[in-house]
Amino acid sequence: MGDRRKAREQALQLLYQMDLTCTDVNETLEKFLENFKVRTDDLNFTSEIVFGVTEQREEIDKIIEQHAHNWKLARMAPIDRNLLRLAVFELLFSTATPARVIINEAIEIGKKFGSEQTASFINGILDAVYQTKQKPG
């Protein structure tokens, strides 16, 4: 597994924890680091994602709901919801990774942490977000 995938998995775990416990990002990160050994390089990328999602969450959630036809965020499985947040953040607010890599990573992480339907659900929504991003204007 690549370093970036490990960092994305850690980011998903942190976002999931924050979502379920309604805890602050700093407190959640502190507790995570107390309990898990994290490489500095992984921590930098993980933190970039988690803080980025936290800062852009309102806009990210609107974008997800626009593309998740007939689905409200509250009805989504917590893993799916937070994996979408992570990937949408990377797609729209971070230029470090190509879109297809971001989508593929989200699908693979979804297979590992989500349900049988997670991969196709994630793929459909992220592809729609990506297609919208590609349209001029």
Write a structural description.
- This protein is mainly alpha-helical.
- It has one domain (3-134): NusB-like (N-utilizing Substance Protein B Homolog, Chain A), CATH 1.10.940.
- 77% of the residues lie in helices and 0% in strands.
- It has helices at residues 3-21, 25-35, 40-67, 78-93, 99-113, 118-134.
Main attributes?
N-utilizing Substance Protein B Homolog, Chain A; mainly alpha; 6 helices; single chain; about 140 residues
Count structural domains.
Answer: 1
Following the backbone from N to C, one meets helices and strands in this order, namely HHHHHH
CATH superfamily grouping: NusB-like
Mean pLDDT comes to: 92
Helix fraction bin: over 70%
Beta-strand content bin: under 5%
> What Rg, in angstroms, do the CA atoms define?
14 Å
Record the SSE blueprint.
Layout: H1 3-21, H2 25-35, H3 40-67, H4 78-93, H5 99-113, H6 118-134
Kindly summarize this structure in a few lines:
The chain has 6 helices and no strands.
